[in-house]
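ok so i was messing around last nite and threw this chain in just to see what happens. nothing serious, just curious
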Amino acid sequence: MKKTAIIITVITILALTASGVSAKNEKAEAAIAKTFAQRCQRVEERVQNRAGVIETREKAHMVVYNNMTSRILKFIAKAKTDDLDTTKVEADLAELKVKIAKFQTDYTAYQTTMTTLRTGVCSRSEGNFKTDLTASKTALKLVHDDAAAIRAYWRETVKVDLLALRDAAEGDEGVTTGNTTGN
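result:
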């Protein structure tokens, strides 16, 4: 009889402990699910905000680049009317347009990776999300490198050639003006 009472007591204690453990597990799982949902929502908001910024920045970059090329074209047209050799500046402009086209292509690729990243942030596995995020960061680095290459090309090549052409134009005017006043 004593053995039976001890066995019943042990079984009762085990049953109560097991139900307490499962209740604790349910609470822990609910807390984890809630935390994951909140984290997922924050990530979705960040990705959505980033996607909006991408479009705005691309437009701003392209406005600047289009203004740059149109100003160079105007300068070339004016230099041609002054009978100056513009072949070097025209070659610079062609190379600049190639760099701008590469920037635009890479920016479009970056936008595509962000669109892929934006769709179903919470519905995919963490490994896939990290892979897509890494691809997006790599594409963004490429875009930054393209923009830096355009700035460097402008500063080190195009601007130098434009200034040389302008100096040549001013030098020709000075010689012409000097000859007419000396007579």
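not much to say yet. The two ends are 139 Å apart (CA to CA).
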